[in-house]
Amino acid sequence: MTALVSRNAWSLGLIGLLLVLVAMTKIIQPDFGLSGLESLSRAALPFAFATAGMAVVVIVGGIDLSVASMMAVCSVTAAVLMPSLGGVAGVLLVLAIGAAMGAINGALIVLTRVPDIVVTLAMLFVWEGTALLILETPGGGVPGWLRQGIGGYFVIPGLPKALLLIAVIVAVIWIPLRRSKSGLAIYATGSHENAAFRSGVVVGRTRVLAYGICGLFCAFGGLSLVSLTGIGEPVPGPYLLASVAAVVLGGVVLGGGRGGLLGPIIAVFVLRIIRTILTLAGVDPNVTTIVEGTVMVAVVMLATVVTYRRVRV
Amino acid sequence: MSMVSEERNPVQLGRYLRDNPVVPLIALLFFLIAVLEFMKPGMIIPLRGGRDGLVSIFWVGNLIKFAIPLAMLAACQVLTMLTAGIDLSAGVVATVSAFVCATLSPLIGIQLAMLIALGAGGMVGLVNGVGSGVVRVHPLIMTLGTGLIATGCLQVYQRFVISTGTEIPQMLVWLGTGRTLGLPNGLFLFVPFALVILWIMRFSGFGRLLFALGSNENAASLSGVRSWQVLVALYTLSGLIAALAGLLYLGMIRAPSLSLANPLLLPSVAAAVIGGTSIFGGRGSFAGAIVGALILRVIDTMLTLLQMPQGARILIFGLIILTVTGIYERIIRQG
């Protein structure tokens, strides 16, 4: 039990923070209830998937600057294909495309041996251009069930479908992976690439896998974007910055090898609820940006100081 | 850089190119310009188009003019990358400085407004420096965060000055749009600036400290380098440079907006990387970044000329950055 607590100390701390923030919301706005939570988790959907994807590549020791662009590609592909192809086939195709894009990113990093940050910077432009080529202006459409699929509650009132979707999708992809040999390889590569290589980890393939998973999560992100708005939007949203912030806030160390997906996902909700609180408190939306940035920087500073302490002692 | 000589003596060539990264880049630049001339005869060599002159001064001037702000922002990236950092707030800082200068000029006079604009840039840089140098936050996160905060501050600030109107200092307009002997006046700012940066990197003690920190931070601190002091000074300098670039860009575009220089950020990273600066620190050249900025501008012109849809242009831009850095990495690795 203590081992479990100490291993997940960071996530537990975040959950505590989240509960405090929810309580604060309730105090500021007594009306805030289940429907507030429902819309909060709906708005958090694309952020959560972008963050999950980013977390996987940061754990493997890289970074993917092209997450927002990949989400844009997936969103426009879905919006263009679904009216003619139908829902299920469309969803599967988009997921495959997302995974393929991520794998291409990873393969390029492995083959060219150019640093991840440079390759994905270049691919940010490539995917953004691709999205614009597929759909020049926002348009297209998605079947109604996809839109209804993310709104409302599941079975018992109080369990938002969006929240359930995030939990189920991330768990189904991540937990088996993490328990498998490949998952171990991802962590090994992230903590020390040379050591991993000498212990027989196929480093290149592990990298490609991690980036592919990132692409897959981005595809889910893109799908949730179209489902939220009902149309495909070729211009990438603000998901890059937000996902990096949530990953770091979620206790994944930049440089790789440490952290999981639970922390970052909770961090997404922490960041979203801060926004909600500020909006409810009647703070100017522009000030909200300042507060978000400050929170992000302050949290990272605090985390760095704490980890350094621990190393020194 | 022919294939034959590469096969004959790959190791030596690689070593030579690693020590002189600018040489193949200049070759690439001229190759791209030749392609451009081939695509639209007479564009660069007016004689072929039936006009006078061997080289179109106007075209060259235009190329240089638009490459200058990019090269200045690339200086921020080169300097910070030397210590294995990066400055992702540079684009926002340039925008902030331009906007502050344009809106304060009618209120408090031009000189003071420009000083405050530079001061704002220095402030953001100082915060970056304290964050990454003293508290040891990863520079990528730190500069992204301060960029976000600065954007928010700018939006709040904008509401206070929305009624004052804007004025763009004449001096900046002269620097940004004027020409002397066919060449842009921006060079009057850029040439001394570039010399100072080159001097800092090549000959000053500060420059040596940057290289030392980037090559091996442990070794540097064991030899008595106080890394936090160097990093604070470095990021403050980077903020000032970005603010200066913003002022010049304001004179060039003459329309302040809340996202004026933001689109220059990622190309500035690309220019630094194409110019042979390693994102892991310890290796970098500002001369290379200048050529990198010129190359990016030529590519831009080329893609505009082809009249491709916007999407294809962005896509090809990305592919070219990838190809150039990929080839480059390969050449250097051979050495």
From TrEMBL, chain A:
Keyword flag Transit peptide: no
InterPro entries in the record: ABC_transp_permease
Coiled-coil spans in chain: none
Transmembrane parts of this sequence: 41-60, 67-85, 91-110, 117-135, 155-177, 208-231, 237-254, 261-283, 289-308
GO MF: transmembrane transporter activity
Main location: membrane
Any single GO CC term annotated in Swiss-Prot or TrEMBL for this entry: plasma membrane
Keywords carried by this UniProt record: Cell membrane, Membrane, Transmembrane, Transmembrane helix
Localization per record: Cell membrane
Membrane topology: Multi-pass membrane protein
Pfam families reported for this sequence: BPD_transp_2
PANTHER family named in the record: ABC TRANSPORTER PERMEASE PROTEIN YPHD-RELATED-RELATED
Name under which the protein is recorded: Ribose transport system permease protein RbsC
Organism of provenance: Ruegeria atlantica
Gene: rbsC_4
Automatic annotation (TrEMBL), chain B:
Localization (cell): Cell membrane
Top-rank lineage group of the source organism: Bacteria
Membrane topology (UniProt): Multi-pass membrane protein
Pfam family, one: BPD_transp_2
Keyword Cytoplasm: no
Transmembrane segments: 20-39, 59-82, 88-108, 115-134, 181-201, 232-252, 264-280, 286-306, 313-332
Molecular-function GO terms, alphabetical: transmembrane transporter activity
Entry GO CC: plasma membrane
Protein name listed in UniProt: Ribose transport system permease protein RbsC
Organism, scientific name: Ruegeria atlantica
